[in-house]
Amino acid sequence: MSTTSYLIPEKLYPYFQAVSLREPPLLKELREVTANIPRGQMQVPPEQGQFLQLLVTLTGAKKCLEVGVFTGYSSLAVALALPADGTIIACDVSAEWTNIARQFWQRAGVAGKIDLRLAPGVETLDRLLAEGRHGTFDFAFIDADKANYWNYYERAYELVRGGGLIAVDNTLWYGKPVDLADQSEDTVAIRDFNRQLHRDERVLISMLPIGDGLTLALKTREA
Ligand code: CA
Question: pTM for this one?
């Protein structure tokens, strides 16, 4: 396997993948294509794509949001797990990277499930709110620019239904949040996001050491 993890011991990781991964050939190909482009390490590892598939299946999700598409690994994984009438509104600002995504969505036969919105994520989410789509989404995956994480989260919270799930990527941010000397914008944003989410009693949360840290926030039904 070409991927590595800083959260799972190096010796154990190949075994972890060998006995748990069921990566379809097209996802594997996309991962390999992405590994060869600049910033290719931004894509989610295969076990995380598989976990997102389990989450959407578990929650019976049909309407999904994704903020941060990159080359489309996570959206392809989610789309493959969705029922035939499932949809994803996918937000990104890069035509270049999402062109790769589109090709793979086409080849996988799921392009019709994915509505790509090329605009700043906050704008797209605000538009959905302006259209009155509060509480109509089942699942949201946030994996874009860290400085806007709280902005994305607050909007995703309004857009998902009670009992809907928000998954937020990179919440352990390569271990940087614990280094208080690191005051870079992204690290500060992740640190602040985690602190704020910890205090947000409208959701049940669980932070998982998968990928680069994945935090799940379940909107409680009473909200
Ligand atoms: Ca990520």
Answer: 0.96
| Average of per-residue pLDDT values in the chain | 95
pLDDT in tens, 171-194: 999 999 999 999 999 999 999 999
Q: Which residues pair with 90 in a beta bridge?
A: 66, 116
Whether the CB-CB separation of 105 and 79 falls below 8 Å is answered with: yes
**In the block, residue with structure tokens 């937020």:** 168
Q: How far is the CA of 150 from the centre of ligand 1 (A)?
A: 15
Cα of 94 to ligand 1 centre, how many Å? Answer: 15
Tell me, in angstroms, the distance from the centre of ligand 1 to residue 83's CA: 25
